Amino acid sequence: METNVDVIVATERYGSAESWKYVVQDGVMQRRKDGSSSFSLVGAFKSVFLPQGYPESVSEDYLQYQFWDTLQAFASTLSWTLVTQASLKGVGVGNQDATVAAATVTWILRDGTGMFGRILFAWQKGSRLDSEAKKWRLFADVLNDIAMFIEILAPFFPSFFTLIVCTAGVFKAIVGVAGGATRAALTVHQARRDNMADISAKDGSQETLVNLAGLVVSLILIPLITDNSSLSLGLFFLFTILHLFANYKAVRSVVMETFNQARLSIVLQQYLKDKRILSPFEANRREPVFLEFKITTRIKLGVKLQDVVQSPEDFHLASRNNSMPYLLGVRNGCICVCLGSGASVHDEIRAACQALCLSNMLKSPSFSQTSKQSLWEMVQKSQEVIDANFHTFLKGVEAAGWDTNRTLLNWDEWRAEWKRKSS
Q1: Which 3-state string (H, E, C) describes the chain?
Q2: With a threshold of 0.70, does the pTM exceed it?
Q3: Of residues 97 and 401, which shows the higher confidence score?
Q4: What is the pLDDT of residues 165-213, one digit of tens each?
């Protein structure tokens, strides 16, 4: 008696989700699914709201970031409902003395000032949004809550209503630029298969779903808060606290593997202290996520040559024993780095490391001299420290998982050429 034996000739899988096998039985090839073949609600949800190839196609921090980002979007939608009601009340909805023309003028002035603020902010801070995406992302959400708080208070000051909503309009325009630009920077970080468009599209789907849920809850809230200013303010503060907490957790969950100035400083200081290389996860945990306004030694990367040297003597001191394609100096308390036209990404990292090393030396309590000669001596000492440590440091950070093929160090565009000493 012959027994028919199924022969598996091939297997295949879709990402890390489904797996199939090709079986030959009685001379016929059949395709069968491994495991249960029943409809999966979780699988359908992933297909609709998560990028194709998840989780292999995104960064490891994707799910945690999206969870907190979804929660903050939900809280923001509920706050928006309260603000919208206050704004409509302020322009005269429900008031027989209010005119359509006055409400229209108020709205035009609000949108116009917002457009002006958008252009100004993008001009002044646009180049910094990539390098400090976490800080500006959190700043945008804090500013958004401030703008909504101003708008919800506007009806209580009818004489200044137009001024208040125009101010809020400027704030919201800044939020639009900073929030949109930093979301794009985070999408670049999350995309591991050049799938930025897919991630961005699915993020939009997630946000739309959350906004729909927020609108449903808002329909329940509206009858409760109508003509009840105390409850409206109380709920606003509750949603704002939730919004800020979720945003803080969201940016804290991001683990970027590229160096910006803050992350490079953290890793370099730890290495110079005990020769230990911090992983991207460790360094990102220590990275500050709030904008800092304290006075520190500024570092300017990619400046004009005249910002580094102002005389032949300065040029001699800056290029002494220096075969690298960059020159570094101190001017008016600011560390300036002039980059050569042929500098590589590794040269950029090295130059930034020396600037950070010099910054730490200048902040040391043991340094008190401010003469030009003493400053050039400090530049020379920082160069010696980096010459002795950089090669090993670079190998260590690459082994620890850092991406040294690109940086977020916010270099300006000036490049110079000069005759360098051979190494």
Answers
A1: CCCCCCEEEEEEEECCCEEEEEEEECCEEEEEECCCCCCCHHHHHHHHHCCCCCCCCECCCHHHHHHHHHHHHHHHHHHHHHHHHHHHHHCCCCCCCCCHHHHHHHHHHHHHHHHHHHHHHHHHHHHHCCCCHHHHHHHHHHHHHHHHHHHHHHHHCHHHHHHHHHHHHHHHHHHHHHHHHHHHHHHHHHECCCCHHHHHHHHHHHHHHHHHHHHHHHHHHHHHHCCCHHHHHHHHHHHHHHHHHHHHHHHHHCCCCECCHHHHHHHHHHHHHHCCCCCHHHHHHHCCCCCCCCCCCCEEECCCHHHCCCCHHHHHHHHCCCCCCEEEEEECCEEEEEEECCCCHHHHHHHHHHHHHHHHHHHCCCCCCCCHHHHHHHHHHHHHHHHHHHHHHHHHHHHCCCECCCCCCCCCCCEECCCCCCC
A2: yes
A3: 401
A4: 899 999 999 999 999 999 999 999 999 999 999 999 999 999 999 999 9
